[in-house]
Amino acid sequence: MRTEFFLGPKINDFDGFIYVYYSNEDRDKAENGERIKLKIGRTKHEPSWRINTSAKSNTETYNKILDYFSKYHCFMEYILHRMFKEAWVKRKNISDGKTEWFLLTKKEVVDGCKKIRSGMQIVFGDYSEQEAAILKTK
Q: What is the SS3 assignment for 76-131?
């Protein structure tokens, strides 16, 4: 994965968001630090819109763990999926987003996402306009 990361995003990658959520049926397990099925995805829309769309299609309620902007959201999602490939699971009982689910704890996914995001910022300058403005003032 290290080599793939340093090859960087493709020239046609574009602005978007990364998001992570889980089904409300796993809420107690999530709060107890147990492994739960987490969806790691990307969208060019606001993450809340995408999450709500999936929730309606699948007739489930979802709890968002995190979301953030990326200038290279396709690449970032790819790297996150590679990072967690050993934890990949497929949900067969839903109609929207059957893949891209991973059996992880909230802490594992948050820590992993922070590492990849930090690397993306350092290596590729992947900052939102607000983050870049803050950096310029320092």
A: HHHHHHHHCHHHEECCCCCCCCCCCEEEECHHHHHHHHHHHHHHHHHHHCCCCHHH
